[in-house]
Amino acid sequence: MSRAIWFLIKLAIVVAIAIYFVEHPGSVTIDWMGYAINTSFAILLVVIVALVGVAALGYRLWRGLRGAPGMMGRRSRARKRERGYRALTRGMVAVAAGDAAGARRYAREADTMLRDPPLTMLLSAQAAQLNGDEKAAEHYFQTMLERPETAFLGVRGLLTQAIRDGNQTEALQLARRAKSLQPQTPWVLTTLFDLETRAAQWGRAEQTLLDGIKSGAFPAEAGRHHRAALLLERSYESELEGHHDDALRYAQSAAKLEPSFPPAASRLARLLARTGKHRKGAKVIEKAWTARPHPELADAYRDISQDSDPLAQVKRFERLQSLAPNNLDGHVALARAAMSAKLWGEARNHLSKALAERPSDKIYRMLAELAEAEHGDIAAARDWLAKAANAEPDPIWVCKECGTLSKSWRSLCGQCGAFDSMDWKQPSVAVQIAEPNRLPPAATPQPPAPPPPTTTVVSDVTPPGQGSPAQGSTTSQPQPATS
């Protein structure tokens, strides 16, 4: 509506001007070089407007002809750029789809069309990797390091190659360089932490962990548990180096972070006992036992005792068991102490309670031991051992990444190298029983990228002499990994 009104206003103005010139035509005389031109003012105005229009049209035509080559060049470059970006996009899709030939073809096309190395270098490197040309990929990544805008991508590509090749030293250097470029990037912090723990660089790993917790790369709860595990390793390392005060200090820090974590509590209790603080060590165990009863705590509680009298040990474990009544591990620990004191009835009572709660291999074997020790009843002992052969396995430390079993807790899985991955639970399948190795030698580091797990079935444990493996033995049979 407003456009129509505006058009009518302009039309009215033009009509009014035309009427005005008709009513007042006036006259104009031009005398130039002996010629006299007489005309009305209106006609002169029309001629002037026409000349101005022709001049403007000519000027535009002249500019168009003059700029035609440049315009054609710009259009050509725009078309090439469009084709280059299209090739770049298709190349990325080919990389994602694993199409090595397509990725290489589109990488070349994008490089030809765009001639912009920062844009095409990553695609070229990924295409080279898909084609198995690691040297070419490394060349592209190294070239990317020379440009500030692509240096981080270059470091990431080289880091991925180093991890895949198992070159831990180079991977560590690259991960630290990546952190210097992008200190808050979560994957940089988690990768660097993983590499430092595999290299047993516990101090640096702790600092990386703290940075990761601040930036949100590690959840607070997991970060706290990881730090407790790191502090335990620093405690073991300090003890090996003869720094006993540092060993105790790190153990205290670990137990403070995770007071109910059995390895931390037992470690602190043993170190306190070595310094003569047996009562304080016992309180550490009792506090942890109240929150989370565990066989490792019971072992430490027995080992740090100053009184070796079996009856005194029974009273000691009665006090411990009272802190968490009706707990299976408490009954088992008290039964073991009672058997050492030859209190057969009390031992049988606690084993019966433990058996009612959860029949397991350990309880049946203890019942077999009790039958033989109390009455010399070999037949009854064999019956218990037969039940043990078919019983469910006892809880053990199991790596949640690869399923490896370990008789004692360790921060690094001996099979896959995962850090702080051991859970105390009843196993179903496992790779093998791994023995602790607190400080893996630097000359034979575990590769950061764990291989696909190969699981094996843990054999039933039966008493010697019945055609089955002896106690503690395992039979490894390759099984397909389950997800």
TrEMBL record:
Its main location: membrane. Residues 435-483 are annotated as: Disordered. Residues 438-454 have a biased composition (Pro residues). Residues 468-483 have a biased composition (Polar residues). It is found in: Membrane. Residues 26-132 form the HemY N-terminal domain. Keywords: Membrane, Transmembrane, Transmembrane helix. This is Enzyme of heme biosynthesis (HemY-like).
